[in-house]
Write a structure and sequence with these properties.
about 400 residues, alpha/beta, Aspartate Aminotransferase, domain 1, 7-stranded mixed beta sheet, 4-stranded mixed beta sheet, 14 helices, about 40% helix, about 20% strand, globular, binds pyridoxal-5'-phosphate
Length: about 400
Amino acid sequence: MTGDLFTRRDAVIMATYGRPPIVLTGGSGTRVWDADGREYLDLLAGIAVSALGHAHPNVVRAVGAQLGQLGHVSNLYVNEPQVLLAERLVELLGLDARIFFCNSGAEANETALKIARRTGRPEIVAAEGSFHGRTLGALSITGQPAKRAPFEPLLPGVRFVPYGDAAAMRRTVGEQTSAVFLEPTLGEAGVVPPPPGYLAEVRRICDETGALLVLDEVQSGIGRTGAWFAHQTVGVRPDVVTLAKGLGGGLPIGACLGIGPAGQLLRPGDHGTTFGGGPVVCAAALAVLDTIVELGLLDSVRTVGARLGDGILAAAAPGVAGVRGAGLWRAIELTGNHAAAFEKAARGAGFLVNAVTPDAIRLAPPLILSADDVDTFLRALPAIAATAGAATETPKVSA
Ligand SMILES: *Cc1c(COP(=O)(O)O)cnc(C)c1O
C-alpha cells in the first residue's frame, strides 16, 4: 500500500522534494506513526511547526469551534480572532506594533520587503547562508546561490554579507540601505548562532544609517529558544519581525510585525491577501499561545532543551563532534558528511530528525517535549551514531 502511494505520488506531484520511504498517517503528542503501524518520536515537528505536538486537544477544539461558527470572511471584513491574536502578539513583543497576517514565512518576508520598499531606499542587505523563503522576493534575499541561480534575475539591489561579521555589515550598510534582513540564528543553514553581540552591533549600524532591522523569526520565534522571540534573549529591538512556522500549531499562518513607524509604512491598498489572518488559523494560534502559557512551556523549553544539548555532548557518540543552538532548537554537529545516513539510522530506530546540512542533524521538536522523551532519544543515540558511521565508512579496497 505504501509503495503504491509512492508510485501514484510520482505521477501527480511535482518532483520538488526527495522524501523518505514512509507514509505518516497519524500522531498524538510528541509521537507520530506510519502506514505500517511503526511509531516515531517526532524530533522535527514538521520543521519547527507543531509547537504543541500532534492533535493537541486545545488546537483541535479551537479550530473545530471556530470553523463551526465562522470559517472565512476575507479581509474585506474584520474578524475578532484576528484582532485578539494581534493584541496578544503585540503584548508578547512588548513593543508598539502593527501586524499584517498572511499564510507562510515567505509571505511574511514579502510583506517586510514591501515595507522596506516604502522607505524609498533602493538597497537591501542580507546574510550569506540565510534562508527567507522560496517566493521570488524572499528568494532574492536568501543567501544560497544554488537556490537562487535557476531563477535569476531576482530583485535588484540586494547585497550579501557573511553572517556574524559585524565589520562587513558596517562596510555594506549605508544611506541607500532600506533594510537589513537577518535570522537571529541561521535555521536552514544548520542552526548556526551568530557570535555574541552581533545583533546588538547590527542594531547600532541600523540606527546610524536609518536602515530598518528586519528579524526573520519564522523559525526562531514562538518559544523555540525558550523566549517568545529569540531577539528578546539578546535584548535587541527590531523594526520588523516576521513569524510563521510555530505560530499556528500546524495550521498555515504567517505574520509581519511592524514596530513603531515601520508598522505604518504600508498604506491602504499597498498589500493584501484573501486567506491571511482568517478566523480559523487565528483561533488555532491563540490556542497555541494560551497553551504555551498554561503549560509553562517557555521554562520547559529551556530546561528540557538544556537536558537535550548537555545529553548529546555527554553521550560522546561516535561521529558526533558537538551540539549547537538553544532551547529546543539544536544541531548535532557530525565529524563528517554522514547526516543523511544519521537521519536514516534515526528513523530506523524510531526517531524523526533532519539532515539539515551534510554534516549536521537538526532537532526542532514540539515544545511539549518531555525530559523522558529526551532520555529516550539519548539512550538510542550511540547506536544510531554507530549505525550511521558504519553505513558511510568507506569500504577498504585491497591493492
Ligand atoms: C521556513 C522559513 C521561511 C519560509 O517559510 P515558509 O512558510 O516555508 O514560506 C522563512 N524564513 C525562515 C527563517 C524559515 O526558517
